[in-house]
Amino acid sequence: MFSSVLVANRGLIQANCVRAVKELGCKAITIYAPNDRNSAGVRNADEAYELTVKSSGIPYLDIDQIVELADRLRVDAVHPGYGFLAQNVEFKRRLNEKGILLISPEFNAIDLLSNKSAFREFGRGLGMPILPGSETSSDVEELKAAASDIGYPVVMKATEGYGGIGLRVVERESEIEGNYRSITSQAERFLFQPERVYLEKCVKNARHVEFPVARDVNGNRVVFPERECTIQRRFQKLVTESPCSFISASLRNKLRSAVEMLVDQLDLKGFVSVEFLLDGDQAYLLEVNSYIQPSHAVTSLLTGVDMLREQVSIAAGQPLSFGQKAVDTDKVAIGVFVSAEDTENNFAPSPGKIDRLDLPYGDGVYSLTNVHTHDSVGTFYDPIIALVMTKENNRDKAINKMRTALDCLHIDGIRTSIPLMRALMAYPPYLSGDYDNQFLTTEENRDRIFESYRTPLDSEIASLVAALSLHRDSSKQHLLEQARSNSKSRIWDMASDWFNRQK
After folding, report:
1. CA angle 269-223-100, nearest 5°?
2. Average pLDDT value over all residues in the chain
3. What SS3 state is found at 215?
4. Structure pTM?
5. What would the 3-class secondary structure string for 4-51 be?
6. What is the rounded CA–CA span in Å between residue 377 and residue 360?
């Protein structure tokens, strides 16, 4: 086992990696930008080092600075978490030159998996179903011609993008150039190759599933129950269910067989996730992520396997401590990511100070967070601040438990996605499985979810707020009188009486 591991990330994954490394008896070292100084991962690490923030760029992407620190501290390994440098070939090479292991697949695998376009061709060569797409190009006119051949809408993808970065949905030809410029601008900031992108057919009304896989140095592998991550915003997952309740047993077995063949062909070591897009019963291979996924904790709760600890152990050369039967289960787990965003304002960032943080607890309820009461939340990085999970005997019970958990979750001082998630867990189409990857993409859909959740009391409160607002503004008194005459609610009269008593 390693003596020390540097966790080169932030947020939820930093906190969880620090925990896993310490539980394995290793020294847990981490890094932080100044605005993350008080995060849970930094507080709990054995050692933490502040990164220098340069005039341009993101400190967590500063390969020179992180490699120099890892070398100076003589760590055995670096855990990259997800995003940032997790799938960066140059980062792995630089660490390797210093005799430091990056916890990720081998060079040949990570080189292929970090290039989405090259991986498409690899999958095609294995006979895997691939979405219609184009060759890579840096020429806008070539991209326009390719999009016309594929048929709109298309998804424009950077070959080395990650975590929803470097992806754009293009509805018409006039949007090609602007989206290309946007992706190349992101590339400079997030350290992926800017000059070449490719196109894929955009399949709306589809489902998104991923199969986590563990494979050790001896070639022993375990395929975990699939996770459904269909409900997303801006290509980032907000709700995870495992297993998926809405695919047939025959399709599940077909996909599992494809996953087994794929990871064996790649000779992967460690943890990866194989992602598919489901258009009805037609499955398309999307990509293989060579890093631990944000939803890994849902699988850990479902199966009892601590995926982060196992990932570190496999990287240290140890065999898998469990077999396939250990992860086969008839239980269901659900995970809800909570973000510091205003979901009624198109998921606009909601920075500020957290005045109150109450996490839910109970049998089959598990929460992860990287913030505390009185912490400040900024707009610099991923807005996800908590993950709430439930586990039960079936999906309906897991959802009911999640409703209770979300009712017990309180984060005051900033706007969060909690109200939307509460509404979603009671929304009939979600309960029946009548949803797809467009579920939260439009304001109309989100309004429909909110409206279904509102009670008569909510309407009364809204009326009271409106009445008080109109009373404060004498220029709008006529609107108040009109509302009083047209509404059956006594709230308007109550507000008027209250204000009259204040005079």
Report:
1. 20
2. 89
3. strand
4. 0.89
5. EEEECCCHHHHHHHHHHHHHCCCEEEEEECHHHCCCHHHHHCCEEEEC
6. 20
Considering only 59-68, 368-377, 440-449, 470-479, which range has the smallest mean pLDDT? 470-479
**Residue 179 sits in a domain of what CATH number?**
3.30.1490.20
Closest CA to 119 of 290, 287, 255: 287
Number of domains in the chain: 5
Tokens of 145: 């011609």
The answer to whether residues 314 and 217 touch, using CB atoms and an 8 Å cutoff, is: yes
Query: Which amino acid is residue 150, in one-letter code?
Result: I
Please give the structure tokens belonging to residue 10.
Answer: 């932030």
CA pair distance 118, 114, nearest whole angstrom = 9
Q: Is residue 121 assigned to a domain?
A: no
CB-based contacts of 68, cutoff 8 Å, min separation 6: none
Separation between Cα atoms, residue 476 and residue 498, nearest integer Å: 17
CA–CA gap between residue 83 and residue 162 (Å, rounded) = 6
| β-sheet with 27-32: strand ranges across | 47-50, 27-32, 4-7, 77-79, 101-102
Give 103-123 pLDDT, tens digit per residue: 998 867 888 888 899 999 999
Classified as helix, coil or strand, 244 is coil
What tokens does 267 get?
A: 């000779």
Asked whether residue 390 is assigned to any structural domain, the reply reads yes
Task: Work out the widest C-alpha separation in the chain, in whole angstroms.
Answer: 82
- Statement to judge: residues 215 and 302 lie in one domain: yes
Cα–Cα separations (whole angstroms), residue 230 to 279, 284, 410: 12, 14, 25
137 phi, psi to nearest 5 deg: -160, 155
3-state secondary structure 391-427: EECCHHHHHHHHHHHHHCCEEECCCCCHHHHHHHCCC
First-to-last alpha carbon distance for the chain, in angstroms, is 74
CA distances from 156 to 131, 235, 262, 272 (A): 13, 12, 25, 24
Is residue 380 located within the same domain as residue 342?
yes
Q: Residue holding tokens 């996490």?
A: 359
- Cis peptide leading into residue 153 (ω within 30°): yes
